[in-house]
Design brief:
homodimer, alpha+beta, Aminopeptidase, 9-stranded mixed beta sheet, 34% helix
């Protein structure tokens, strides 16, 4: 093993930041909105732009057909360390409401915040073009200084993340050999705060259910039948009320099977992060966490499971009144899963619980169930400690390992289909306005993001 | 007193039934939904149609401004008997869910049931256009045969019954002299069964509430906030679940204040009617009365109070899924009142109960409350015996006196403001699907309803 000139590569990053920004801006100018077919050509153009750019760095790159928007697959050999599969996406969210943008969403600019912070403002600045380009620029600097990469890299940059990665799951299955690697690197998550880097080591899974409770065979006049006929809105309300206990725990028998407590050292780390109700809930007008008593707020939103009704409706919901007893009432519900909870078992436990609450004369029907298990990266994953040290070196503050409350289902496919654990590192901040007007990415996130990947690639090769 | 040619008038009813139906169909074609302002013109058109029709019969008629939808007031002198104020309404309930109608709700038709029964199918066929037209057609036949009416009649046909008679109370107060009469006749109730006519001597009162529970100051991503942020749909569900106890009683403290048990003889009569769950609930697909344990089914639906959520909604209710925790959740609710329950006290007890269930961080707002007390007519009312005899003659079975589960608040105003007791006679049947898709009115109800009013008008004049 030869010594790698890490400092020279970092210096190259600093010196070429203006050119790095020029390239990011070129990509941001392409309106690659994946959910609207009117932008299909823009999605193809973004893929082509990436292919052309990666080829200039010596990657063997192509825009590959997926059945939907193309996926960019690019490969370059590297040092003797583990081969890494990098994942990101070039597609972006729609821009509406357009009138709330201060400047056009696809005309990127550098804005200066009142506190002097420089920000890249454009749709996709943070999610995910800015993040993708931190990795691409890190590779470029390694190649520029040393002529090669510390580790071999395959990039998979898709164009349908914002529309549920509709075709990527099949694409991964169909291209196992082509995407083979030792570890996956994902850049689509955030920092803990503006000064503290983070590695996301768990993602909650999900169970999605829609169901209806049916009572009478038609809507009834409440004057005629009120007092005698079962009201499905009351029945559904009792069912929803029965989902949680007064201790904040989910009261579905068997629901917690597979839920594990955090390792003691991680719990200590999380206590140290001191996520307060005032900081987290204050901005949304709340003050009291409603999760399990005795748990930290950060546990409630990342390492504990949830059960939330996302929508509920029944009876007359229009203007004025209607003295009706409805025939049926509906709910949409999602459970967020953690640790080893099995989505099928959770779904079945939920359904059994609902059926057990159902009074005589009422029926229940379930629709549209789907689910994915939570993803927990092994705490002893070899690359985790290396990446953590690299991030700590770059930011001068210990990198934390956190759980994300959300779900990135493709990470599950990397494990299931490619056998890969994923290292989730990203530089987004909570105020990036992701999915909202005036999306931004701090210039510091971009610059130090590139430097962070330079260090991580170096650390992986050790 | 000259002998009145009752048989000739009844024969005229029989001979002109087709024309009577044509007129009813013309009225049914007008989409006079009063609760939705989009149908304001249709309400005015229905009033105008009635005015024009009544004028052809020699009534002095006008569509009168009430501040809301117009009320039709029409007058005709008659014989020497008591002057009668007839009340009905031309407005109808909304038609949703529209996809459950077998034919368009405002395209009336005659359908034949499997047992050969002919039915008029349309929104308003029973409630209340069909019922109103039984009285109008009875008057028409008296006029056609004798040139006059057995008793003087003032008709008051309003357009806001389904929206709580919002402006009629003030209208009655402001037009006392114009509406002066000796007795009120109301046609908005039902038969005991398809062969047994009924006079309704008590009506439940009503309290109407709409309210929303508010948690966060905006809709939240359930992946980010799920497990920590209060979910207003859960909170509302707990409130709704808390409205009833396992014994079927309403669990709002103070709710039963003023509720009285039936007189022993009436309770005995009602036991004799033997209203079974199979007969009453079977046709709507239910089998178990959900009211207070230990009460007769007929008590539950007529002499006991109720509390029903008529509509509830919150969060995402569209196609597919959205992982949102809503900011607010809504419900519409009605309580049916009996005996001496005070609507204001009941409303206040309800609101206090809701507030007592409300967790930290949640707010509740109440909208659009209105109410009316229950009404009991004097059992010894003079016209009651006459009407009962007339109905018994027409139907060949003794007319029964019953309590109605529904509310007709204006009947209270007739007593309070005009000094009138009301004779409530109607020909609706329990399976009329009032307020539901495919509302119908049996052709027999319409035909014998007209004949019944012909006889009652004759009996009143004796």
């Amino acid at each position: 093993m030869t010594a790698r000139p890490l400092d020279q590569v970092l210096a190259h990053v600093d010196q070429s930041l203006d050119q790095s920004l020029d390239r990011l801006f070129a990509l941001l100018r392409i309106a690659s909105v994946s959910t609207d077919s009117a932008y299909a050509k823009d999605c193809a153009a973004a893929a082509d732009w990436l292919v052309a750019d990666l080829r200039t760095m010596g990657f063997e790159a192509a825009a590959r057909d997926t059945g939907g928007h193309p996926a960019v697959v690019a490969k370059s050999a590297g040092g003797a360390g583990p081969h890494a599969l990098f994942y990101g996406h070039y597609d972006v969210q729609p821009v509406d409401p357009l009138d709330q943008w201060e400047t056009p969403p696809f005309e990127p600019r550098i804005a200066t915040a009142p506190d002097g912070t420089k920000r890249i403002v454009a749709r996709g600045a943070s999610d995910d073009k800015g993040q993708v380009m931190t990795f691409v620029e890190a590779c470029r600097s390694w190649k520029a200084v040393t002529g090669s990469l510390p580790v071999g890299i395959t990039m998979l940059i898709e164009g349908e993340e914002e529309s549920g990665s509709a075709h990527l799951f099949d694409f991964v299955k169909a291209n196992r050999a082509d995407l083979a690697a030792d570890v996956a690197l994902v850049c689509d998550t955030g920092m803990w705060d503006a000064g503290t880097p983070a590695i996301t080591t768990s993602l909650r899974g999900i169970v999605v259910e829609e169901f209806k409770v049916v009572a009478a065979n038609r809507d009834l006049h409440s004057g005629v039948y009120g007092g005698a006929a079962a009201n499905p809105i009351h029945v559904l309300s009792r069912i929803v009320a029965s989902l949680h206990g007064p201790d904040g725990r989910i009261a579905i028998p068997g629901f917690y099977e597979g839920v594990e407590d955090l390792p003691a050292d991680i719990l200590e780390d999380w206590k140290g992060l001191n996520l307060t109700a005032q900081d987290f809930l204050g901005p949304i007008g709340l003050s009291q966490p409603i999760g399990e008593k005795g748990r930290l707020l950060i546990e409630m939103v990342s390492s504990r499971p949830t059960c939330d009704v996302n929508g509920m409706w029944g009876g007359y919901t229009g203007e004025g009144g209607k003295t009706v007893i409805a025939s049926e009432a509906w709910a949409k519900l999602t459970c967020r899963l953690v640790s080893k909870q099995d989505p099928v078992k959770v779904r079945d436990a939920f359904r059994a619980h609902v059926r057990a609450q159902l009074p005589a004369d009422c029926k229940v029907e379930f629709f549209g169930s789907r689910g994915s298990a939570a993803i927990s990266l092994p705490w002893d994953m070899p690359v985790l400690a290396r990446a953590r040290a690299a991030l700590t070196d770059e930011w001068g503050r210990k990198a934390v390992t956190i759980g994300s409350g959300g779900s990135i289902p493709i990470v599950g496919a990397f494990k299931a289909d490619l056998g890969l654990d994923s290292l989730l590192v990203g530089f987004a901040l909570e105020d990036d306005r992701v999915h909202s007007p005036n999306e931004k990415y701090d210039l510091k996130s971009f610059h130090k993001g590139i430097r962070s990947w330079v260090r991580i690639l170096d650390a992986l090769a050790d």
